[in-house]
Write a structure and sequence with these properties.
The complex is a heterodimer of chains A (about 325) and B (about 300). Chain A is an all-alpha fold. Chain A has 14 helices and two strands; from the N terminus they run H-H-H-H-H-H-E-E-H-H-H-H-H-H-H-H. Chain A has one domain. Chain B contains twelve helices and two strands. The chains are: A mainly alpha (about 325), B mainly alpha (about 300). Chains A and B meet through helix 5, helix 11 and helix 13 of A and helix 4, helix 9 and helix 11 of B.
Chain lengths: ~325, ~300
C-alpha cells in the first residue's frame, strides 16, 4: 500500500474516531454520514475515472439500483436488511456487467453520453413503473438495519457503520491500485493501444473496475435506503450523477485521496451555502468551471504543482549559492 | 386508432422532431470545428426561449423585434462561453472538455433559475391559434411557422457553408485543422464562430418551440439529450443527417406516446441513442470509415 498511503489512512481513521468526541451536534454527525455515503461512490468513480480513464455520467443508476433493491426486498419480499444489501450488490453487479460490455467499447464523448443515457433511462423507469417503485412519489417504511442486538437508528451508529464501510472500501481500493490490476488500469489511462500491445486485457479490466465502482454505489444506495427509510426517484437524477463526478474532479482524479478531499469539500459546501438556498447550483457550476479551466488536475494536483514549484525555487536558490 | 389519429401523431412528431434536428445541427457545427460535444447545447435552446418570452411578455416588445434581440443575446453568451472557458485551455483532455461544458450547462441553468425563477412560461403563438385541418388531422399554424423557420435556417446554413469564404474556412477546419491553419485559416476565430453559430441556432430552436411547448429553466437538458440522440443517429458531424434523424426520432417518440405509453415517451430517444452507439456508432448517414478517423 505504500508508506504515504498508510500515514494518510492513519490520519483519516484517527480524525474519524476523534470527530464525534468533539462534535456533539447530531446534525453535523448527520452531514458526515452523507459525506460517507458519497465517499463510497466517489472512491469507486475515482478508480474508474482517474485510474482507468473512463467516465460515467450514470452512477446515480447504480446508487438507485442498490437503494430500490434493498427497499423493495425489505418492504415487499420480507427480506432482512443485511441479505437485501448483498442481493442488491449482486443485482447491481449484473446490471453493470451487462451495460458495461457494450458501453465500455465506446470512448470519450460517446462513453459519456451513453452512460448519461443509461442513467436517464433508469430514472424514467423508476418514475414510470409505479407498481414496483411507487412512481414519482416513491415509497417509505423501509426498515432500519439490525446488526446483532444493535439497531442502526441514531446518527452516531450510522456514522460508525458507514465510515467503517468507507475505510474497508478504501483499504481494498488502495491495495487494488498497487497491484497488478492497478498498474494495468493506469496503463489503460496512459494509452489503451499501448496497454493492449503489452498484453493487458484492457476490455476485461475496464469492465472489472466499472462493475466494482457500481458495487460501491450499490452499497451506498442500500445504506441510504435504510437510513432515510424513504426513497423517491428525485434522489437519483442526473444531478446526482454529475455531483459525484464533480466531487472526484474537484478533489483531483489522480488519486483516491483526491476523491475524498473533493467529497468532503462539496459535501460541506451546501452547509456553508445555506443562505443561498436554491442558488447553490449556481455556485457548484461556478466552482467546477473555475477548477477545470485553471487546474484541470484538481485540488490535489494544485497542491502537488505548488510543491513542485517550491522545490524548483529552492533548487535554483541552492544553485545560485554554490 | 384510425388513420387520421396516426397522421395526427405523425404531425406532432414532425413538429417536435424538427426542433431535435435543429439542436442536433448545433451539436454538429461545434463538433466539426473543434471535436467537442457541447453538453450545454440544450441550455442555448432554453435561454433563447426564455429571453424571447421576457422580451415579449415583460418588455412588451413586438415579436419581430424580440426575435433578433433574443438570438443575438444567446449568440453573445455562446461566444463569451468559448472565450472564457474553452479558449484559455492548453491541450485539454476530452474528460476536461466534457466536464467544462457540463459545468457551463449547470451555470446557465442556475443563472436561468436566478433570473426567471422556477415557474414555467409560455410564449404567444406567432400568428392565429386556429388549427388547420389536413386529411382529417389538424396542425397548428405554429407548426407551419416552425417548419418554415427550419427550412430557412437549413438553406441559410447550406448557403453559408457552400458559398461564403468564412463557411468554407469552417469546413476546412472540420476536414483538417492543421491543414486549414497552413493555408491561412485563423482556427481560433473559427472555433469562436462555431460556438456563436450553434448558440444562435439553439436560440432559434428555443424561440420557435416556445409557443407550443412550455419553457422553464430545466427544459434545456432533455432537449439537449434528444438533440444529441438525433445528431448521433444522423452520424455525428453530418448536419443533413441530423435534421432527418431529428424528424425520425420525433415521429417515433410521438407514435410511442400515442400508441404505447406516454410514461416512456422520453426514453425513446435515449434507447435509440444507446442502440445506435452500440450497434452502429457512425449513425445512419455517416460513413464507417470516416468515423474511424475521428477521435472520440
Amino acid at each position: 500500500m505504500g508508506a504515504k498511503n498508510r500515514i494518510s489512512l492513519g490520519v483519516l481513521v484517527g480524525g474519524l474516531v476523534l470527530l464525534p468526541l468533539f462534535m456533539r451536534n447530531p446534525y453535523y454527525i448527520g452531514v458526515m454520514v452523507f459525506i460517507g455515503l458519497y465517499s463510497l461512490i466517489t472512491i469507486g468513480l475515482s478508480l474508474l475515472m482517474g485510474y482507468a480513464g473512463q467516465i460515467s455520467l450514470g452512477h446515480a443508476a447504480f446508487f438507485a439500483t442498490g437503494a430500490y433493491t434493498s427497499g423493495i426486498l425489505t418492504t415487499k419480499a420480507g427480506f432482512a436488511p443485511v441479505p437485501a444489501f448483498f442481493t442488491a450488490i449482486l443485482l447491481t453487479a449484473c446490471v453493470a456487467f451487462l451495460i458495461g460490455i457494450p458501453t465500455l467499447r465506446l470512448k470519450g464523448h460517446y462513453l459519456a453520453m451513453a452512460t448519461l443515457g443509461f442513467g436517464q433511462i433508469v430514472y424514467i423507469i423508476l418514475n414510470a413503473s409505479v407498481e414496483f417503485t411507487g412512481g414519482p412519489s416513491g415509497f417509505g417504511e423501509i426498515p432500519r438495519i439490525q446488526l446483532g442486538s444493535i439497531l442502526i437508528e441514531s446518527q452516531i451508529s450510522r456514522y460508525c457503520l458507514v465510515w467503517s464501510l468507507v475505510i474497508l472500501v478504501l483499504i481494498f481500493s488502495l491495495n487494488l491500485i498497487n497491484s497488478r490490476v492497478g498498474r494495468a488500469l493506469r496503463s489503460i489511462h496512459g494509452s489503451e493501444l499501448a496497454a493492449n500491445a503489452m498484453g493487458v486485457n484492457t476490455s476485461k479490466h475496464k469492465i472489472q473496475v466499472f462493475v466494482l465502482s457500481a458495487i460501491y454505489a450499490s452499497m451506498a444506495g442500500s445504506l441510504y435506503a435504510h437510513f432515510v427509510t424513504f426513497i423517491s426517484p428525485s434522489s437519483f437524477d442526473l444531478k446526482f450523477s454529475i455531483l459525484v463526478v464533480t466531487m472526484v474532479v474537484v478533489g483531483g482524479m489522480s488519486s483516491v485521496w483526491g476523491a475524498l478531499v473533493g467529497t468532503f469539500l462539496l459535501g460541506l459546501l451546501p452547509e456553508l451555502l445555506r443562505n443561498f438556498r436554491d442558488y447553490d447550483i449556481l455556485v457548484y457550476g461556478f466552482v467546477l468551471l473555475l477548477i477545470m479551466v485553471f487546474t484541470p488536475e484538481g485540488l490535489i494536483g494544485l497542491i502537488d504543482r505548488l510543491k513542485g514549484a517550491q522545490e524548483k525555487r529552492s533548487l535554483k536558490a541552492q544553485a545560485k549559492l554554490s | 386508432m384510425g388513420g387520421s389519429g396516426i397522421l395526427q401523431l405523425i404531425f406532432s412528431g414532425i413538429t417536435i422532431g424538427s426542433i431535435y434536428g435543429l439542436v442536433a445541427v448545433g451539436f454538429d457545427i461545434i463538433y466539426n470545428c473543434t471535436g467537442i460535444i457541447n453538453f450545454a447545447q440544450g441550455e442555448f435552446v432554453m435561454l433563447g426561449g426564455m429571453i424571447m418570452i421576457s422580451l415579449v411578455g415583460a418588455a412588451d416588445l413586438p415579436m419581430w423585434i424580440s426575435f433578433p434581440i433574443a438570438v443575438f443575446a444567446v449568440t453573445l453568451i455562446g461566444a463569451l462561453f468559448e472565450r472564457l472557458c474553452i479558449h484559455p485551455l492548453k491541450k485539454p483532455s476530452i474528460l476536461t472538455l466534457i466536464i467544462i461544458t457540463i459545468a457551463a450547462s449547470i451555470l446557465f441553468k442556475g443563472g436561468a433559475m436566478f433570473a426567471w425563477g422556477k415557474q414555467t412560461f409560455s410564449l404567444p403563438h406567432f400568428s392565429s391559434e386556429r388549427p388547420i385541418s389536413i386529411f382529417g388531422a389538424t396542425i397548428l399554424p405554429q407548426t407551419v411557422w416552425i417548419l418554415g423557420f427550419i427550412a430557412v435556417v437549413v438553406l441559410l446554413l447550406a448557403f453559408f457553408f457552400k458559398a461564403t469564404m468564412v463557411g468554407k474556412a469552417m469546413r476546412a477546419c472540420a476536414a483538417n485543422r492543421s491543414a486549414a491553419s497552413l493555408v491561412g485559416v485563423n482556427v481560433k476565430e473559427i472555433v469562436l464562430l462555431s460556438f456563436a453559430l450553434s448558440a444562435a441556432i439553439g436560440a432559434v430552436a428555443g424561440i420557435i418551440i416556445a409557443p407550443i411547448a412550455l419553457m422553464d429553466y430545466e427544459r434545456g437538458m432533455i432537449l439537449g439529450l434528444k438533440g444529441f440522440s438525433a445528431a448521433v443517429l444522423g452520424g455525428l458531424g453530418n448536419p443533413v443527417g441530423a435534421v432527418v434523424a431529428g424528424f425520425l426520432i420525433g415521429i417515433v417518440e410521438a407514435l410511442c406516446a400515442g400508441l404505447l405509453s406516454s410514461h416512456y415517451k422520453d426514453a425513446v430517444a435515449l434507447i435509440v441513442l444507446l442502440a445506435v452507439l452500440f450497434i452502429r456508432p457512425s449513425g445512419l448517414f455517416g460513413s464507417l470509415e470516416a468515423s474511424r478517423l475521428k477521435k472520440f
